[in-house]
Amino acid sequence: KDITNATHQNRVNILVPFDDNDTLITCGTLTNGYCEVLDINDITKSIYYESGISVGQTRQNEKSVAFIAGPSTGRYILVGKNDEHKSTQDSQYPVVKLWNTLTSQYKGIFNYIEEGIHPSIQSTARDVEFVDGFQRVSPSESYLFLNAKTDSERKVHVLWMDSNKGKKTEIFKSLQAATIECCNDKARPVLVSSTVIPSGNGVIWAGVFSAQNQQDPENTALALYNISTVQGRVKGFCTVGEKCDSESGSNLQPLSVVFKYSSMSSVAAVRSGSWIVLFIGTSDGQLIKLVLDEKFTPGCPIVLYKSDDERAVLPRMHFDPVDFKYIYIALRNELRRVSVVQCAKYSSLKDCRAALDPLCGWCVDTQRCSTQDECSNTSWVSIPKNSLKTQLLSFLMTENSSRKITLHLALSLESTGNPAFSCSFTRGSVNLCDGSDLTAVFPNCSCTFPDHILYTGVSEVSATVTIKDQKITETLTMRNCSSITENTNASYTQCVECVSSGCQWSSSSQRCDWTHGTGPQLLIQDACKDLRPEIIYRKPEILSLEPNKVSFHGRNNILLRGKNLESVTKIHFQGDLECIPKESPVFDRSSDTLRFHIPPSGTKGTVKVCVVTPDDRCHGNSIITYSSQPSCTGIQPTVSWRSGGRKIDVQGSNMESVESVIVRPSNKELQTQYSRSSGDVWFHSPRYYGSGLLSLLLKVVNSTIDCGYLSYEPDPEFTFTTLQVAN
Fold first, then answer.
1. Residue 623: helix, strand or coil by DSSP?
2. Span of 235-244, 338-347, 513-522, 595-604 with lowest mean pLDDT
3. How many CB atoms lie within 10 A of CB 233?
4. Cβ atoms 65, 80 nearer than 8 A
5. DSSP code of 181?
């Protein structure tokens, strides 16, 4: 909408769709404040316009929250904002008002007065910042989330109101409030972004909290809360006619802290059955997908999008209302539509299951990994509730009184419909069982055979599971459970053999036996954790890493300084956004220094670095930060003399990741020096007697970045003359 003949810029500060009325309500700062009602189907059509009213925030650095609230008989716009007309400290001022949305309401549209009074929520707090808010439909209740500074202490508050009341005064009198705390490891008293998680039982809410320390790799935390019953009051907030100095009720504690990262900036959520799928935006320009099971246990984070530079994802993200498989994110001056599912990249049922994405499953008829809505009238095979902690295929062995062994095979899968399903077990080229000894009911199989097959010791069986055209084959190593620890003392190796053979390890008797029942199998690391062998060595320590900030391309030749490093076998990297750790071999070692290469990363963020000893233990906890690749903005000076040796400064961002400069056409590689004070790198110009310009490339591991040109002039000539001034 073009505004002509305006003396000041207009800034829109309220943008609220009023779906029940098929209108869009916008307010702005032009002409001392205005509000306008637009046709939501054609926003060029103005239905109503009123100037001279200040509904949203007027200052550019302030935030406000607005949404439709109130009973179905008469809706209002609930607006929370930090009033700029504050008086002295400890005086109360309005921070939440209810504005009319219809001309039929008392005093007409865009009015907050009610029968001679000015209903509102008041505050005495300083630096009130509204972050988020929403209204539930059933029951009709409103929630507001804000940051406030009271008594020089920062806190996050939630305000609750019964929106079903008929009058504004009654809605505000129903006010309940609580402080939201995050988290046990450190205080994070600032709310950055939040979202409601669709839930049948109660109101589950997720918030991103910040400790306001950008250098901390765990500066922000994403925590889940049950906010169904907000009760009490918080100091500094009350309704008109009350004093804002009372405090009651208890603080809200998180149900679970599901993710920590240096710079989360936004969050959105969807639910798929018992699963919750969170989408997290970051200040370094990434969109991360995180799956939670019904106990709020997080899976492996997946980066859906990564910007080339450090532009932050803004706090508000919206799912595409037409196609839920996309989300809209805003980064600085860019709006981007990002796919939230990547099912098509998995070409087999096994790979589709390994993705551990509840939005993806195997469509049996079309033979592809897809979302459920793309798989109609056929079986859709997906991950079950407990699949974050279970392997695709596991087995147990039981023995009955007839000296027969039954092998129970379980697939960690579930399906709509009844997919075609069969199993086979072969030993060599011979079927281990068939007929009545073989049963297969999705997703389980069992195979019964005589126990003499295991008398000879180890027996390898090939198990094949077929779901229509998809085959999954695993080699199972079976042993006679009762003979694994016979006549020997228990050891870690025996425990591993026992559990991996489908047998049961007893931690009390330190013996291996046949399994009783068909319950879930214990993982080796849980069953055998008390039997790990002890190896004698001096415990290594990490003192420093040089450099400790690299681009996502990685870095060659990192120097680690420490103590007792002679027993280190490799370097272990565990990233915030990577469930599978990376490892790097060591070269050029001594007792107090090591050198190694940092592998590339598909994500930005911090990784924890520790050194591994021969017993597979990891020692130390240093941090390396992956950032965007360097960008070159220019060189200074841009000219050198032919014989070279002039100091050339290379300017740009993330320059600590630059390893060297390559000069073309000669392809000569020049060493660079990093300046901590300026953040730039510099090098000495090479000798060059050719014609034309030299092209400069910054080398970052195995990639290069263009960095302009260097021109050459002839060497300077100095002419000296003498003048006799004495004898």
1. strand
2. 513-522
3. 19
4. yes
5. P
- Taking a C-beta distance cutoff of 8 angstroms, is the pair 612, 572 a contact? yes
Phi, psi (5° rounding) for residue 465?
-110, 130
Which residues are CB-neighbours of 693 under 8 A, at least 6 positions away?
709, 710, 711
Higher pLDDT residue, 614 or 204?
A: 204
Q: 255-271: per-residue pLDDT in tens?
A: 999 999 989 999 999 99
Other beta carbons within 10 Å of 403: 9
Residue 558 has pLDDT above 50, yes or no: yes
Q: Which tokens go with 287?
A: 């969109």
In this structure, what DSSP letter does residue 665 have? T
CB 403 within 8 A of CB 448: no
In the chain, % of residues over pLDDT 90: 55
Residue 527, SS3 per DSSP: helix
pTM reported for the whole predicted model? 0.81
Between CA 417 and CA 376 the distance in angstroms is 11
Q: What span, in angstroms and rounded, lies between the C-alpha atoms of 507 and 485? A: 13
**Secondary structure class of 715 (helix, strand, coil):** coil
In the chain, the amino acid numbered 275 is W
Note whether 192 and 223 are within 8 A (CB). Answer: no
Nearest alpha carbon to residue 367 among 348, 343, 386, 354: 348
Nearest residue to 513 (alpha-carbon basis) of 494, 531, 491:
494
Q: Which residues contact 41 (CB under 8 A, 6 or more apart)?
A: 22
CA distances from 654 to 171, 609, 687 (A): 52, 21, 28
Structure tokens, 679 = 């953040």
* Mean pLDDT taken over the chain: 89
Predicted local distance difference test score (pLDDT) of residue 87? 46
Give ∠ CA 82-87-88 in degrees, rounded to 5: 115
Integer Cα distance of 668 and 697 in angstroms: 10
HSE (CB half, 13 Å, CA atoms) of 603? Answer: 23
175-232 pLDDT per residue, tens: 999 999 999 999 999 999 999 998 877 899 999 999 999 888 899 999 999 999 999 9
Q: What is the distance, to the nearest Å, from the Cα of residue 269 to the centroid of all Cα atoms in its chain?
A: 12
Query: Strand 647-653 vs strand 631-636: parallel, antiparallel, or unpaired?
Result: antiparallel
Question: Where does residue 430 rank: exposed (0-12), middle (13-18), buried (19+ CB within 10 A)?
Answer: exposed
